[in-house]
Design brief:
Oligomer: single chain
Largest sheet: 3 strands, mixed
Radius of gyration: 18 Å
Helix content: 10-25%
Strand order of the largest sheet: 2-1-3
Shape: elongated
Distance between the termini: 70 Å
Structural class: alpha+beta
Number of domains: 1
Bound molecules: zinc ion
Length: 76
């Protein structure tokens, strides 16, 4: 039996194309790493999420001034 068209249209475009993606919200930290708010085990990059927010919006304590510039470490 064929699935109803209504059920297919319930999926997002990425689902229909069987692409790797996540329906959760990616929380991007200042170091560029992203956490998934919906699935702790999610390993997908922020770009593959439906929503992307800054970690500062959720009260994360990592801040830009806590990241040291790498140029100082390279000075010889
Ligand atoms: Zn989807
Ligand atoms: Zn953070
Ligand atoms: Zn995710």
């Amino acid at each position: 039996m064929m699935p109803e068209p209504a059920q297919i249209s319930d999926l997002c475009a990425d689902c229909r194309h069987d692409l790797e993606h996540c329906h959760g919200t990616a929380i991007v930290h200042v170091d560029g790493l992203a956490d998934c708010s919906d699935d702790p085990g999610c390993r997908l990059p922020a770009a593959l999420h439906l929503f992307v927010i800054s970690c500062a919006d959720v009260g994360c304590d990592c801040r830009p001034d806590s990241v040291l510039p790498t140029e100082q470490a390279r000075a010889s």
